[in-house]
């Protein structure tokens, strides 16, 4: 593999980007070329890596750095991550799956493009995780799950067997979803919250 194909741009220069850097360094599959942030962040450094440009520079950066990862966080809304992911797709960036060497990913699981599986996370057999997701530190995705695109499963959250999590959903730290639960698209599940029933029935109360 050439040095060019091994480089990766991180799109986002905040706190979540720092966690992504740590995972990518541990994985040792890609060389981090730098970050893309806001115009005011250009020239700054994040854990030693330079912010090379803003979103406006993405078209010119793809030739030298064809791989990219969305490294903005997601809590209140997935809109920024969706916008950046779709922009990168339009510009023909490659959007690899990033998996920490300290995570467990079953060979029988399927992970979509641009998703990151962070330290200590577990993705078990038969799980289907969509594109541009964050499976955060120590999260558990059990067997037979379907996690939609652009979801954030936060630290130490547990999604039990054969649940269905709709696109754009945020599941907070230490939340627990029971087996076979259905979560509507763009739901926001709070930190530590147990979820026992059919989430679709509560969509008006919870969804964004």
Q: Based on CA inertia axes, which overall geometry fits?
A: globular
What is the N-to-C succession of helices and strands? HEHEEEHEHEEEEEEEEEEEEEEEEEH
Number of helices: 5
Summarize model confidence as the mean pLDDT.
92
What profile does the largest beta sheet have?
6 strands, parallel
CATH A-level architecture of the largest domain = 3 Solenoid
Name the poorly predicted regions.
1-5, 199-208
Distance between the termini: 43 Å
Question: Which structural category fits the helices and strands?
Answer: alpha/beta
> Total domains, how many?
2
CATH homologous superfamily grouping of the largest domain: Hexapeptide repeat proteins
Number of strands: 22
SSE inventory with pairings:
Layout: H1 3-6, E1 7-11, H2 15-27, E2 31-37, E3 45-46, E4 49-54, H3 58-61, E5 67-70, H4 79-90, E6 98-99, E7 104-105, E8 110-111, E9 116-117, E10 122-123, E11 128-129, E12 134-135, E13 140-141, E14 146-147, E15 152-153, E16 158-159, E17 164-165, E18 170-171, E19 176-177, E20 182-183, E21 188-189, E22 194-195, H5 203-206
């Amino acid at each position: 593999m050439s040095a060019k194909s091994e480089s990766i741009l991180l799109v986002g220069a905040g706190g979540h980007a720092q966690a992504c850097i740590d995972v990518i360094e541990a994985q040792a599959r890609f060389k981090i070329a730098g970050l893309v942030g806001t115009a005011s962040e250009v020239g700054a450094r994040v854990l030693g890596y330079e912010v090379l440009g803003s979103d406006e520079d993405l078209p010119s950066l793809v030739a030298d750095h064809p791989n990219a990862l969305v490294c903005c966080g997601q809590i209140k809304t997935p809109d920024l991550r969706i916008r950046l992911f779709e922009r990168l797709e339009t510009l023909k960036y490659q959007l690899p799956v990033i998996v920490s060497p300290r995570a467990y990913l079953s060979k029988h699981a399927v992970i979509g493009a641009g998703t990151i599986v962070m330290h200590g996370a577990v993705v078990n057999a038969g799980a289907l995780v969509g594109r541009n997701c964050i499976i955060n530190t120590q999260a558990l995705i059990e067997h037979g799950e379907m996690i939609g695109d652009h979801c954030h499963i936060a630290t130490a959250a547990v999604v039990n067997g054969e649940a269905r999590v709709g696109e754009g959903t945020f599941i907070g730290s230490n939340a627990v979803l029971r087996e076979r639960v259905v979560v509507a698209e763009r739901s926001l599940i709070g930190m530590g919250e147990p979820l026992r029933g059919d989430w679709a029935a509560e969509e008006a109360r919870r969804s964004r």
